[in-house]
Amino acid sequence: MDISIIIVNYNTEYLTRQTLQSIYDRKYNIDYEVYVVDNSSADNSVKMIQNEFPQVKLIISERNLGFSKANNLALKQVKGKYVLLLNSDTVLLDDCLEKCIKYIENNKEVGALGCKVLLENGVLDHACKRGFPTPKASLYYMLKLDKLYPKSSKFGKYTLNYMSEDEINEVDAITGAFMMVRREVIAQVGTLDESFFMYGEDIDWCYRIKEVGWKIVYYPKAKIIHCKGGSSQKKRWKLIYEFHKAMYLFYHKHYARRYSFLITSVVYLGILVKLVMALLINLFRKKGKA
Q1: Residue 24 and residue 18: Cα distance in Å, rounded?
Q2: Interaxial angle between packed helices 45-52 and 13-24, expressed in degrees from 0 to 180 and rounded to the nearest 10
Q3: What pLDDT shows up at residue 54?
Q4: At the N or C end, where does the chain have fewer CB atoms within 10 A?
Q5: 262: burial class by Cβ within 10 Å (0-12, 13-18, 19+)?
Q6: Is residue 83 classed exposed, middle or buried when 0-12, 13-18 and 19+ CB atoms within 10 A define those classes?
């Protein structure tokens, strides 16, 4: 088996159908299998998959496990030489899979590969090529210095916007919306950290992969479309909370011991303030719509 594709579905019947169609509508010169892990969806997702895509290996959870736990259920069963984490709100373009497999096959030092991820409006989803969110990189990003000085490698350490989106580059992190990883790498670093419910698990995995010496590469010759936020339109407060919780978890796990108590305290306070502000903005938006 060349590749195992894992998709986590949560109340995204239409989008998941679209993603699966973008896989099965093409003929490949590779052997592949597709797993869909359903996170206790309340819509018609499960029946749709069973009826329209009987070849899918469907895992049904009785509760919403989150992104990491759900992916890990499938990761324990996959048979592919490579594993692809693929969001349920994505569309594969052209021969994306074959291009990625060919590249990673020819570059044995690459442990994880990400493609060019485009939003529906054609703009690059910057999460597909990122630096690690160190305190300094995060500060520059929050102050929007990366936008003021778009060609600066100093101020653009997180978004890497000084790198051309059309050039192949080694990066720190790619997005879990499309992340191709070698099975041998997963055996070495372990599966996704289940402390992360959603958000942050991809960058944590990338950190662990690079930590043991593998390269992570952004490969823009392969492309997908990301209909971002498809499974998170409701309960926005939960989305906001999990996003900021992931920031805390990542820093606490990888950086807290490397920086002084003062810097760590400032980082934690910054995350808390950012969380409160985001929740307040969300509350006022709801009241404005009411």
Answers
A1: 10
A2: 20
A3: 97
A4: C
A5: exposed
A6: buried
Quote the pLDDT of residue 234: 55
3-state secondary structure (DSSP) of residue 65: coil
Of 2, 165, 209, nearest to 97 by C-alpha is: 2
Q: Using CA atoms, how far apart are residues 128 and 218, in angstroms rounded to an integer?
A: 7
Residue among 131, 132, 159, 130 nearest 146 (CA): 159
SS3 content of the chain, % helix, strand, coil (to 5): 40, 20, 35
- Report pLDDT digits (tens) over 16-52: 999 999 999 998 889 999 999 999 999 999 999 999 9
Q: What's the CATH code, domain 3-129+165-226?
A: 3.90.550.10
For CA atoms 253, 130, 95, 103, give the dihedral sign: negative
Length, in residues, of the chain: 290
In angstroms, the Cα distances linking 279 to 237, 240, 283 are 6, 7, 6
